[in-house]
Design a protein that fits this description.
The protein has 296 residues and is α/β, with parallel strands linked by helices. The protein has 2 domains: 3-200, Glucose-6-phosphate isomerase like protein, domain 1 (Rossmann fold), CATH 3.40.50; 217-294, Helicase, Ruva Protein, domain 3. It contains 14 helices and 5 strands. A 5-stranded parallel sheet has the order 2-1-3-4-5, with helices on both faces. Strand 1, helix 4 (56-73) and strand 2 (80-84) form a beta-alpha-beta unit.
Length: 296
């Protein structure tokens, strides 16, 4: 309550102290976050999609996570999308009245043809945003799995979700400014769900994002480093492997660790569902070939 009488450093220390509450609140929700993640994995494996729904800060946080999936993990942009109250304009400006339009939220689910194979993640700090509630109600009616991410226990969003994730972060330093602790908790939870789902789906080998799309010079260099780290080869050797693998980090790694050609590596990856470790064999490490590969 004395925030406006504090010095700059005092305000910063207070914000930092409150921010430290967020990881603990998120940690308490890991069982529910795990259920949400497993639902996302099942949806993608069955040919479904993930749809983030939110308004204001929550909508932008959902959109940010959705935009990061394709370049980071090499997935199709059709696999994940975000419905933000007010549409594209709301991502760069305010569209506050759109948050109150439940019918618009329902219409977004109809337009996206949400169905039983999909997961819809509704995001609203208060858990009462009409746009989000309308969307999740329609999504459930259409058979989708609904995850509700909010910060108020017992909120309507939590009650209407199949899986409710509710990190209780406490009052904001600036009352009602949910872009702060609540927004931070939402970003953390969505990072956890999307990253863990991609690991489970074979988009990561050890801790390397091997399905990354090398779309610029920085990422091309990163691809070379990943192949080098995963196989113990030099950067120059890794560059040649990537050329032979037509730019695929996964294929280059399997080629190196199996000492095989591109066609064999591609076939092994296809048989393994895209999982590098399974394609290579057991006990593969980042700095060398698997035991099975070394013994050949």
């Amino acid at each position: 309550m004395a925030l406006d009488r504090m010095s700059t450093r005092e305000i910063l220390r207070l914000i930092n102290a409150e921010d430290r509450r967020v990881p603990a609140a998120v940690a308490r929700e890991i069982p529910r976050i795990a259920r949400a993640t497993d639902a996302v994995v099942r949806a993608i494996q069955s040919g479904g999609r993930v749809v983030y729904v939110g308004a204001g800060t929550s909508g932008r946080i959902g959109l940010l996570d959705a935009l990061e999936w394709p370049p980071t993990f090499g997935v199709s942009p059709d696999l994940v999308t975000a419905a933000v109250a007010g549409g594209a304009q709301a991502t760069i400006g305010s569209a506050a009245p759109a948050e109150d339009d439940a019918a618009s939220g329902r219409a977004e689910m109809v337009t996206l043809a949400v169905g039983p194979r999909d997961v819809v993640i509704g995001i609203a700090a208060s858990g009462v945003t009409p746009f989000v509630l309308g969307a999740v109600e329609e999504a459930r009616r259409r058979g989708a799995v609904v995850v509700g991410l909010c910060n108020v226990p017992g909120a309507p969003l939590a009650a209407r979700a199949d899986i409710a994730v509710v990190p209780v972060v406490g009052p904001e330093v600036v009352t009602g400014s949910t872009r702060m602790k609540a927004g931070t908790s939402q970003k953390m939870v969505l990072n956890m769900i999307s990253t863990t789902a991609m690991v489970r789906l074979g988009k990561v080998f050890t801790n390397l994002m091997v399905d990354m799309v090398p779309g610029n010079k920085k990422l091309v260099a990163r691809a070379r480093r990943m192949v080098a780290q995963a196989t113990g080869r030099s950067i120059e050797q890794s560059e040649r492997l990537l050329d032979e693998a037509r730019g695929s980090v996964k294929v280059a790694i399997v080629m190196a660790l199996r000492r095989s050609g591109r066609a064999d590596a591609e076939a092994r990856l296809a048989e393994a569902g895209g999982h590098v470790r399974a394609a290579v064999g057991r006990t593969t490490t980042r700095r060398g070939r698997s035991r099975r590969a070394r013994s050949r």
